């Protein structure tokens, strides 16, 4: 299903910096009439508020809290597009003293966070025939050893995104799974990637993918290399209908 941004109301989690901030800017530049900035720190969106004025509304939200996300959904009942960008990515190998604690924390944000967003906003998105955009990663398809727990948490969120495509798609909601490679953000630098692609590659790619009605977006150069190798599996397994 094709989704145009023009005159739509959107919500972006983790909207205050990096990819989230770029997504907000792209949404407004392409005609969104209002964007909710869902962030943990209400003071962190001042630059966006100064730039866009009444077109942005900052709301306190934490994807690691079910109560917080339920409250968020009650305040944003007019949204057409929800972009779940909030996530964490700490370097952690599979072997290590703190691996269980680290993995649990990353699952709490990266996978359970998606479940909270999807379940809290499902009725609104179904009513408005809207779209849910989930920021996954090429690490959701390929485990990177020094980012093993992050990769596993994103693999979980990608699997859940596929489930949401089936369930929400049957009710008229578009679902987009975004799989960037290294991007020039604080998280990318912390993971050891210093030459990542611009955040706008992701944000502008989302606009184009929603318009095209795509399920997958591999926005940057490295991601596109993964996409070319993954395409056959995607077409014949991920997007195939096994219900018959």
TrEMBL record:
InterPro entries: NAD(P)-bd_dom_sf, Sc_DH/Rdtase_CS, SDR_fam. SUPFAM superfamilies: NAD(P)-binding Rossmann-fold domains (SSF51735). GO terms for molecular function: oxidoreductase activity. Keywords: NADP, Oxidoreductase. PROSITE patterns: ADH_SHORT. Belongs to the short-chain dehydrogenases/reductases (SDR) family. NCBIfam families: PRK08264.1-6 (NF006120). This is Short-chain dehydrogenase. The lineage of its organism: Bacteria, Pseudomonadati, Bacteroidota, Flavobacteriia, Flavobacteriales.
């Amino acid at each position: 299903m094709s989704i145009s941004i023009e005159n739509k109301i959107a919500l972006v989690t983790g909207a205050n910096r990096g990819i989230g901030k770029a997504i907000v800017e792209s949404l407004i530049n392409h005609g969104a009439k209002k964007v909710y900035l869902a962030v943990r720190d209400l003071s962190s969106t001042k630059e966006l508020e100064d730039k866009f004025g009444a077109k942005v509304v900052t709301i306190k939200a934490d994807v690691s809290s079910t109560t917080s996300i339920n409250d968020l959904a009650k305040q944003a009942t007019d949204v057409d597009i929800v972009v779940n960008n909030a996530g964490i990515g700490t370097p952690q190998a599979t072997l290590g003293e703190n691996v269980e604690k680290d993995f649990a924390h990353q699952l709490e944000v990266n996978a359970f966070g998606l479940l909270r967003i999807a379940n809290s906003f499902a009725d609104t998105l179904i009513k408005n025939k809207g779209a849910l955009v989930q920021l996954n990663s090429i690490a959701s398809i390929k485990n990177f050893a020094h980012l093993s727990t992050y990769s596993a948490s994103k693999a979980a969120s990608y699997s859940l995104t596929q489930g949401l495509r089936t369930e929400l798609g049957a009710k008229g909601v578009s679902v987009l799974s975004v799989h960037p490679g290294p991007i020039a953000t604080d998280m990318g630098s912390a993971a050891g990637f210093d030459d990542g692609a611009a955040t706008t590659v992701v944000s502008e790619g989302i606009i184009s993918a929603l318009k095209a009605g795509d399920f997958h977006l591999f926005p940057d150069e490295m991601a596109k290399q993964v996409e070319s190798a993954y395409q056959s599996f995607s077409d014949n397994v991920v997007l195939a209908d096994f219900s018959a």
